[in-house]
Protein: Zn-dependent hydrolase
Amino acid sequence: MIINWYGEGCFKIQASGVTILTDPFESSIGLTPPRFKADLIIKTLVGLPIEMSKYRAPETEAAVVVGAGEYEVKGLEISGFLLSRESNEKFVKSAYLVKTEDLKLGLLGHLSEGLEPNIVEKLEGVDALFVPAGGKPFIDQEALAKLIKQLQPKLVIPSFYKVPGLKRPTADIKVFAKALDQKIETQEKLTVKKKDLSEKTTLVVLKV
Structure:
């Protein structure tokens, strides 16, 4: 599995011959949107009413996963969980469990509060956990660190933190790393193999 980050919650995840794009964004946020052909787009935050065509990259025929439910796309098994305490009549937030190859990925997306117990149970022990690490308007870094210790993922991959060019205010990754008591070692991309994973939780910071 190969993982690249484009800023905010936008990742390119390549596994089992499938290219996944998470939370694509517009250039108005100050960053450069990704330009590649995706097989699957996963959205963790959508406005209501949901317009599926709005989330499709115009140059692709990518499948789109939005909201709670069980999905199977090109051999991938995806479970979507509604973040009911954070959703309202204007938008819906979701977390996801993605099973691909022999790996399990947890996507916390735009999480602002702690996870509900039933979702915690589903995500415990995932191989890689993608988390919003920049603080407000998302979950506090200290609270996030406690949640991570509860879930015990092998890898923690942060998102939604301060990077050059981003127009919205958010915290530096150093704040989250300190809360998690981890060192920062940045990588251009991450290659994940099940056999190479440690039982100890490791923070992986990717460059945009």
Summary: The first helix runs from residue 117 to 123.
